[in-house]
From TrEMBL:
It comes from the Eukaryota. Keywords: NADP, Oxidoreductase. GO terms for biological process: cell differentiation; response to high light intensity. This is Probable quinone oxidoreductase. InterPro entries: ADH-like_C, ADH-like_N, ER, GroES-like_sf, NAD(P)-bd_dom_sf, QOR-like. Residues 59-369 form the Enoyl reductase (ER) domain. GO terms for cellular component: cytosol. CDD domains: QOR2. Homodimer. GO terms for molecular function: mRNA 3'-UTR AU-rich region binding; NADPH binding; quinone reductase (NADPH) activity. It holds the Pfam family ADH_zinc_N.
Length: 371
């Protein structure tokens, strides 16, 4: 009889996603040699030591340390997964900085693809060797191996390689939820997507185009404008050179857009509201520049606007919803609607550099960490 380890790599409650504590001032990432590895002793015969990124205190990218941690056997309803590709998402930055809270210390990361190395007692429907992906919860994917609940994992179709799957799970399901459930984009709609060359942004543009919408994207640079155009934007606005609201009025003959997908927040809120048509939807799904709060209700009145702040997790909370969303994403990879740009890969141990680049707006498309 074996005894499970008490200190497995386990994520904090997904509810901590939604508590908003203090945001410390932005810290710069200074390149420096990795800290000495923390060598822990196994508490029982079942645990193994694996390398993982750990955050012991909130801060800049340098707060992420490469350490050894213990990973125990899977318990009831769980599987152990050896990660082969780990997706980097802006939400990982929010947790590292404390925009969203998690008990310290924690292992960041909310998306990975890997191979099942053990299944919990009595678990059916999963076996060692299965290739699985998960996105959203639990946190802890910046690790060589981790234990997750079996019901958050989905099978990766053999036609989709590990890196593509890791690059698209969280971002693709977010795009699905935003375009098909939060606001149902139809042919004839005009949509505005901020950060159009980003991880989620590039998928929103490709998918909205395929749905028959006219797609307007905003980006910071010429290089990103070229990506956005290749990804289905009919019009690209380089916001560092042009006024977004003025250009949207020109493009739409003064009518405005039916929906704005805004993940930038503070810096874009005002323009987003100006760009909306009468009875338009502001879908505020992130705050890479900070939160625009507080928003007075009176802002909505002049055009009878709708405002929503969705989380992908709230739309993929049941097993059926998760399988539906992931299925739509993989189907659209297979049929060519979604082309995945894995523009940046880093060794897992260099997660800090990936975060520094993401926060400095140096990245486009998806970012992967390779264990
Ligand atoms: N609600 C949900 O369920 C959900 C799920 C997934 C992601 N998200 C949100 O979606 C957004 C995009 O996530 P992602 O992982 O795909 O990242 P990303 O879009 O690849 O990267 C962020 C991009 O935002 C733009 N940006 C504008 N102002 C910025 C600032 N002050 N700091 C950093 N970037 C800024 C930059 O593009 P330019 O250079 O073109 O300005 C940057 O490249 C994030 O806000 C994230 O929280 C929400």
């Amino acid at each position: 009889m074996t005894t499970p380890c008490s200190t497995r790599l386990v994520a904090p409650s997904p509810l901590s996603f939604f508590s908003i504590p203090v945001v410390p001032s932005a810290a710069r990432f200074n390149s420096r040699p990795p800290p000495p590895r923390l060598l822990l002793r196994c508490c029982c015969g079942n645990a193994e030591m694996v390398n993982a990124i750990r955050v012991h205190e909130l801060g800049g990218p340098e707060a992420m340390r490469w350490e050894q941690v213990e990973v125990g056997p899977p318990g009831d309803g769980e599987i152990r997964v050896k990660n082969t590709a780990v997706g980097v998402n802006f939400i990982d930055v929010y947790f590292r900085k404390g925009v969203y809270s998690a008990p310290l210390p924690f292992t960041p990361g909310m998306e990975a693809v890997g191979v099942v190395t053990a299944v919990g007692p009595g678990l059916t429907g999963r076996k060692v060797g299965d290739v699985v992906a998960y996105a959203g919860k639990p946190m802890g994917s910046y690790a060589e191996e981790q234990v997750i609940p079996a019901d958050v994992a989905v099978s990766v179709p053999p036609s989709v390689d590990h890196r593509t799957a890791a690059a698209i799970m969280l971002k693709g399901m977010t795009a699905h939820v935003l375009l098909r459930r939060v606001f149902k984009v139809e042919s004839g709609h005009t949509v505005l997507v901020h950060a159009a060359a980003g991880g989620v942004g590039s998928l929103l543009c490709q998918w909205a185009n395929a749905l028959g919408a006219t797609v307007i994207g905003t980006v910071s640079s010429e290089e990103k404008a070229a990506h956005a155009a290749q990804d289905g934007c009919h019009h690209v606005i380089i916001y560092t050179k042009e006024d977004v609201a003025t250009r949207v009025k020109e493009i739409t003959d003064g009518k405005g857009v039916n929906v704005v997908y805004d993940s930038v927040g503070k810096d874009t809120y005002k323009a987003s509201m100006e760009c909306l048509a009468s009875r338009g939807f502001l879908v505020s799904f992130g705050q890479s520049s900070g939160s625009p709060d507080p928003i007075p209700m009176s802002d909505l009145a002049p055009k009878s606007l709708f405002l929503t702040r969705p989380s992908m997790l709230h739309y993929t909370g049941t097993r059926d919803e998760l399988l539906h969303s992931a299925g739509e994403v993989f189907a659209n990879v297979a049929n060519g609607v979604l082309r995945i740009r894995v523009n940046h890969t880093y060794p897992l141990s260099e997660a800090a550099q990936a975060h520094a680049d993401l926060e400095a707006r140096k990245t486009s498309g998806s970012i992967l960490l390779i264990p």
